[in-house]
Design a protein that fits this description.
Length: about 80
């Protein structure tokens, strides 16, 4: 894929499947994300993966009520 196609076809995803995400895939995606263009270049970022649905529900309710519908539908 060339850069132009990549830029013009990028999209944000807000609909998720119930398919489980393996820890191996999660770690690979996070490692690759460190190289995505950002104002921080490749400085260290921190990510938290919430695997327990009850914890995710509490986070949505307490800390992210405006985005709870989107966040709450994430499988991980």
């Amino acid at each position: 894929m060339d850069a132009q196609t990549c830029i013009l076809t990028r999209r944000s995803v807000r609909k998720f499947t119930d398919e489980p995400v393996s820890r191996e895939l999660l770690e690979k995606v996070v490692a690759l994300a460190a190289y995505a263009p950002s104002w921080k270049n490749t400085q260290i970022s921190r990510y938290i993966a919430i695997e327990d649905p009850k914890v995710l529900e509490e986070i949505c309710r307490t800390y992210a009520p405006f985005n709870a519908r989107i966040i709450g539908n994430c499988p991980l």
